[in-house]
Write a structure and sequence with these properties.
heterodimer, A: 2 domains, two-stranded antiparallel ribbon, 11 helices, B: 400 residues, Rossmann fold, 14 helices, cell membrane (chain A), Amino acid/amide ABC transporter membrane protein 1, HAAT family (chain A), transport (chain A), ABC_transp_permease (chain A), transmembrane helix (chain A)
Chain lengths: 295, 400
């Protein structure tokens, strides 16, 4: 085997690829959070719960009405997005003019309640969701066995991330969205319904979490605490990338996946903390985050 | 200066008073109050959470609801899997609320914190969900009864059998906390003693979602068995990753600690044939089935070994209270060790002087999807391991 300085390169390549897979997953998750924070200035602590909800809706749909994976991939984000719209319209909008802390606490409480209810209904042990037939099996690369489903995660995440970024940064809709954050009164004066835009953006951001939940269901066990486990990491990624920077969240997500993957190889004990270590260093050197604009 | 001295002396008085109160003997007020401290909504809630409360209540009701002529009282609390919270609940219970005995107890870290309180206050603990063997060895006490299982029994069951079948090169994916380390350490000794070797280990933080990186390391290690020295969702996630990356095609997976809810959460195609050791299986015989059906009607799911253990331990405790006619911990524990526990759970059982409840353990195999009659039909019993072969020998220093 190709080894150098005691490092097995084949194994290292494997770890790098796995890091990229996890990273693309992080990117997908932090994207929704970055949109909601970047455009709406809402720190949405319920994003993890929405991700869990996405996985559960897919699982329950499969169990009770035989909804297959591909249908779930389309329907579930919409269902979760609608829930997000309702949350924004009836819970967050009434406190929109208060300090950010209020929406943070509200969404945090909401997350705990949703998680608690799901634990009560479905237990804490987690359930399995089958990998769709078309994506079963894998490819044997020289350095590792790559399951098809993991390759699919990379492709889909990159596609969704890029198109979201393009939509917000390059299209007219994106211009409205960004203008609505910068100067809502002025945009309203042009006859644009700003509150509607805000609600739909929130719904879209939350829908992305639901989408990530469906993507995660076949590989991770579907359990009520799956969201809270990952939420803190995703928050750290958004902070490292620069609060509100969409492109930053995507690139940082990918990068942190790789950093975490390498840590799992060289010093696995630290793999749960390495991202937070990076966060501390970035905050000390560049408090606005790697890609953030100075506030 | 004067003021400082006063503050200092007040502080010392406070510490002394606190020490005295915390070492005061358990209340012998003639009324039995049982506290169940478990994980009500966390990762281990299905293993020993609300179910452990239900099982304990069943034991109280089956016993007749009264002991020493008074109604038996049951209280419960959520440990939240946090040792500091568990320890303050335990202190409140034994110091202010006259709780006689604390049961449930899942996660060795939580149990360690609780037993520090109860050992001092001389209250009995009935450990039914935790795995560490420390409670009857390095941290043993005259007031501990460790029911259900421990890491040694798990290793002596699953690991020994597999090494004897020629699976001699082991790789460990271990949960990076006290329980995982203990399970890994004990298993390695069993492997070595039976002529096998450990070719590598990796320590994964508790609550890891993605195990693919560790699975890849296992793949490169040249082992023929990958042992999962973890629990709960960690085990399920690790197993899923192993199957996904093709590991299960040419390596055996040994789940060292699997509770029934976890086994049910596993994809049958992936988990089929996997062997594991358990202290209890609901479908073993008529006795276990009868109790399990009653439990299922109340809880909504079949019992885990911790649930069955909680019932058995409570029942044995109450019988001892009844026999000695007091709730004095020393007298009750002496009686508990004198009589042999004997119920649907405790088979060929004895509560040893060190507090270890030794009973028959089961080596089981996860059934194929095609062989399952219903969702609860998950294991084939491969072998019954006698208690004295499963558990660690008693340390002379712990023979109370």
């Amino acid at each position: 085997m190709a080894t150098f300085l005691g490092i097995n390169f084949f194994a290292l390549f494997g770890q790098l690829l796995i890091g990229l897979i996890n990273g693309s997953f992080y990117a997908l998750l932090s994207l929704g959070l970055a949109i909601i924070f970047g455009l709406l200035r809402i720190i949405n602590f319920a994003q993890g719960a929405m991700y869990m909800l996405g996985a559960f809706v897919a699982l329950l749909g499969f169990k009770y009405i035989g909804m297959n994976y591909w249908v779930a991939l389309l329907i579930v984000p919409i269902v979760v997005g609608v829930i997000g719209v309702l949350i924004q319209r009836f819970l967050i909008r009434p406190i929109a003019n208060e300090d950010h802390l209020y929406s943070l606490l509200l969404t945090f409480g909401l997350a705990l309640m949703i998680q608690g209810l799901f634990t009560h209904w479905f237990g804490s042990s987690g359930q399995s969701y089958p990998v769709p037939d078309a994506l079963k099996g894998g490819v044997r690369l020289p350095f590792m066995y790559l399951p098809n489903y993991r390759a699919w995660i990379i492709v889909v995440s990159v596609l969704v991330c890029f198109s979201t970024w393009w939509m917000i940064e390059k299209t007219k809709l994106g211009v409205y969205l960004r203008a609505g954050t910068e100067n809502p009164q002025l945009l309203q004066a042009f006859g644009i319904n700003v509150p509607l835009i805000v609600t739909l953006t929130f719904g879209f951001g939350v829908g992305l979490a639901g989408f990530a939940g469906v993507m995660a269901a076949p590989v991770y066990s579907v359990s009520p605490d799956m969201g809270s486990n990952i939420l803190i990491i995703v928050f750290a990624i958004v902070v490292i990338g620069g609060m509100g920077s969409i492109g930053g969240a995507i690139l940082t997500g990918l990068g942190m996946g790789v950093v975490e993957g390498l840590t799992k190889y060289f010093y696995p004990e630290a793999s749960a903390t390495v991202i937070f270590l990076v966060m501390v260093i970035v905050l000390l050197i560049k408090p606005s985050g790697l890609f953030g604009k100075n506030a | 200066m004067q003021l400082q001295k006063k503050v200092l002396s007040n502080l010392i008085t406070g510490i002394v008073v606190a020490t005295i109160t915390s070492t005061a003997a358990a209340a012998t007020d003639g009324k039995i109050k049982i506290g169940v401290l478990a994980d009500m909504g966390g990762t281990y809630a299905d293993l020993c959470g609300p179910g452990c409360v239900i099982a304990t209540r069943m034991a109280i009701e089956d016993f007749g609801g009264k002991a020493l002529g008074k109604d038996i009282e049951l209280v419960s609390a959520d440990s939240q899997l946090k040792p500091d919270i568990a320890s303050s609940v335990a202190r409140k219970w034994v110091e202010n609320e006259d709780v006689d005995v604390i049961g449930g107890l899942v996660s060795s870290a939580v149990t360690g914190a609780v037993t520090q309180v109860t050992n001092n206050s001389k209250n009995i603990t009935l450990i039914t969900g935790s795995a560490s063997n420390a409670f009857t060895t390095s941290a043993c006490s005259p007031y501990i009864a460790h029911w259900t299982y421990n890491v040694v029994a798990l290793a002596n069951g699953t690991v020994k059998q597999m090494v004897n079948e020629g699976k001699n090169k082991w790789f460990f994916i271990t949960a990076d906390y006290a329980f995982g380390h203990a399970l890994e350490g004990v298993s390695m000794k069993v492997i070595e003693a039976n002529g096998g070797e450990t070719v590598g280990t990796v320590r994964a933080p508790l609550g890891t979602t993605d195990f693919s990186s560790y699975v890849l390391q296992a793949q490169a290690s040249g082992a023929n068995v990958v042992a999962l020295a973890n629990a709960g969702n960690d085990t399920v996630n690790a197993l899923n990753a192993a199957a996904e990356f093709g590991l299960t095609d040419y390596m055996d997976i040994a789940g060292l600690l699997v509770f029934t809810p976890n086994a049910q959460a596993m994809d049958p195609d992936t988990a089929q044939g996997m062997r594991l050791t358990t202290g209890f299986y609901w479908d073993m015989d008529d006795q276990t089935r009868a109790w399990s059906k009653r439990f299922e009607a109340l809880h909504g799911a079949i019992p885990s070994m911790a649930h069955a253990g909680a019932y058995s331990a409570t029942m044995h405790y109450l019988k001892a209270v009844d026999a000695v006619g007091t709730d004095d911990s020393d007298a009750v524990m002496k009686q508990m060790k004198l009589t042999k526990p004997d119920d649907f759970f405790a088979r060929n059982a004895t509560l040893r002087a060190d507090g270890r409840m030794e009973h028959d353990m089961l080596l089981v195999e996860i059934k194929k999807a095609a062989d399952r009659k219903n969702k609860n039909d998950i294991y084939n019993i491969v072998e019954v391991i006698p208690g004295n072969k499963a558990y660690n020998p008693m340390l002379p220093s712990c023979a109370f």
